[in-house]
Every structure is written in structure tokens, then in C-alpha cells.
Amino acid sequence: MTTQTIAGVAVEVNEEGFLEQPDQWTRDVGAAIAAENGIAEMTDRQWQVVDFMRTTYLEEGSAPSIRTLGKASGVPIKELYQLFPKAPAKIAAKIGGIPKPRGCI
User: Fold this and answer.
1) Other Cβ atoms within 10 Å of 11 Cβ, number
2) Domain range for residue 37?
3) pLDDT tens for each residue of the chain, 105 residues long
4) Is residue 66 situated within a structural domain?
5) 104 is annotated as an active-site residue
6) How many domains is the chain partitioned into structurally?
7) Catalytic residue among 14, 18, 104, 105
8) Residue 95's closest CA among 87, 62, 70, 1?
């Protein structure tokens, strides 16, 4: 675990760059993480997914899988891959300041 400054906020991150403490997250931190992952500007639809991921994690203690995300977030799996290329659940979780979902490589 290391401390990194993201959007002017000192945060604890693991070796993959996921925040260790979700309460250190802000939207500015999320936007900066998105930019680091090739998403220059977050759209409302992308924030919808990130907010769903965070809410689910904070309420249930685990991030939703890609399948659950596609069924329950209101954003179909095909669109998730357009919004967050290659690894939608993993990237959305990272942007949302929560741990990587189980099952993500």
C-alpha cells in the first residue's frame, strides 16, 4: 500500500491503483482516475455506472460483478463495454474508489 496524490487528495492505493479506503474518494478523484485510465471526460452515463457500483459496495460490502452490473444498473452489458472498454466492472470500480470486484482479473 502506498500513498498517492490524486486530484490534490492524498489517498492510499494498492499495487493495482485501487483506493484502499473508499471514504477518501471524491468525484474529482474519480475523474482523475478516469483520465489515468483513458477516459478524458466522464459522461452522465458513466457516472451512473460508477455511482451504482459505489452504492452497491457501500450497502452490501462487495462490488457487483459485470453480470449484476448489466442487469441491475440500467446499463446493458454491451453499452458497459462501450463506456468502459475492455474491463467495465474493474475500471468503474477503480474510478469509484472501491475494491476490484471478485472475479475480475
Assistant:
1) 20
2) 2-95
3) 799 999 999 999 999 999 999 999 999 999 999 999 999 999 999 999 999 999 999 999 999 988 999 999 999 999 999 999 989 999 999 999 999 887 665
4) yes
5) yes
6) 1
7) 104
8) 87
